[in-house]
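Lab notebook, page 48
Experiment: co-folding of the full assembly
Goal: obtain a model of how the components sit together before planning crosslinking
Operator: M.T.
Materials (sequences as entered):
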Amino acid sequence: MRKVSGWSLIRLYTIMIYIFMFAPIAVVVVLSFNPEQFGSFPMKGFSLKWFFKLAQNQTILIAFKNSIILGFLTAVVSTAFGILASLAFVRYNFPGKNTLNTLLLAPIMIPEVILGVALLLFIRWLQQPKSFALLVIGHVVLTLPYVLLIVQARLGGIKKEYEEAAQSLGANPFQTFKEVTLPLLTPAIMAGMLFSFTISFDDITATLFWATAQNQTVPVKIFGMLRNSISPEINALGTVMIILTIATPLLAGYLSRKFSKGT
Amino acid sequence: MTKEGWKPWALLSPALTAVFLLLVIPVCFVVVYSFWLRSPTGAEIVAFQFGNYAKFFADSFYPAILLRTIRVSLETVAICLVMGYIPAYFFYRSTTRFKALLLLLIMLPFWISFIIRTMSWINILGDTGLINHYLVKSGILSQPLSMLYNEGSVLMGLIQYLLPFMILNIYVSLEGIDKSLLEAARSMGCTEWQAFKEVTLPLSLPGVSAGCLLVFVLTAGTYLPPMILGGPRNEMIANLIFKRVIGTLDWPFGSAISVILLGLLLIIVWTYNRYLGINQIFKSLQGE
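Observation: model returned without errors.
Model output:
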């Protein structure tokens, strides 16, 4: 009997933790449908007007465009670098392997403020202006360690034997890569790109150091809007962001599971 | 192997170049700049002096922010541990078929925009937020309770951000425990509680310590929650760096504060790695 009641307490506790985690997010979504002028309670009906207003706000649309282009470029570069490095770690033994792996993962532990200051200082020393390119290279550094973690965990299935088999059957190196290696790599590439896109799309702290008024991303724009006060428009923007960022990991999770089942 | 010796290096070179050029060298620049001087006109003068560090420790203003950062980080670690261990244990022992879904849900906040999650607490704790709305409406309070812009609201934002890291670290470590050990303990007459205390808890400690380290490090460098949910008296060290570098353009002093923050974290991570090993943390971040 004691065991049952203990377990139900644990379950109740866990449910409450979930409520703690998700209630604030749910409230953002609920309030974004509030037609009232102030983004707060009470609810006075249901309206999509703040979403329409959002769609007409040019600066927010530009910020979305910036964020999407930035996320995509970051994802391409970061995943390319990450896949190559992961292949080195998964398939080869070489001196200093563990140290290098830790070095490449270390940026996860370095505060973003320091990454922000350091890169900006370096760019300034090179006498380069803040630009969109700075955002891209900065986001590559931010996302690369996560890509390495995600991709390495998913590359174990790619054995050299498959390629050797293809080559012994007469495939040239290009054919081997196209017919064997690439199909095996595709799920890891997709997962890496989705993860790095999401991290880049969400990043705020380091981006605040690197962004200018001309190339604001969506989080930087929200940060600026919060200076006034919380408006229903911010809640609507939040709802759009939540939907976007929930769709992405679900897709990534689905792809990686599909891949791990396949091997 | 020797014939292929160059191949891994070729594969690694883009990533290594990126990290060296865009991280290692820039961080070295921060260290160098922290010894420079700033003239009254705002120009920087190449120098090797410890004035910026002396300025930081000259009176109690800056050290107080450093101490507050450490205190808030420790508070966050403690609360995350208390809040996170039980759900992790629930995932470990639960036989529900929704376990995969529940785990996915706990990882979901990682992917929801950090700034949205942070500002969402304004909707909950604000003067016209969820809690005050119901407290006033039900007549319990006549005036809304001021719950925002203090250390408590900053902690709320921090905990919601960091709790998944703690839960996952503990869960990964629990999942690694051989369940037959538990059965052995039970068959030898241990109660459920004794088995937990003598077997499960000690064996989960690597995950607990990894989670604590990760949460501490991430809190100590955090910028957004104190900025959005805190008042001027809740500033942490990252806010100070931002203000000095972007606000007053005092690069040498901003660099020195960055080095102090980095030094604090390095000491902690180095000590941890020496006694416990750092790779546990990366293992849990791989997820799944």
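Interpretation: Chain A touches chain B through 97 residues (CB under 8 Å).
Next step: discuss with group before ordering constructs.
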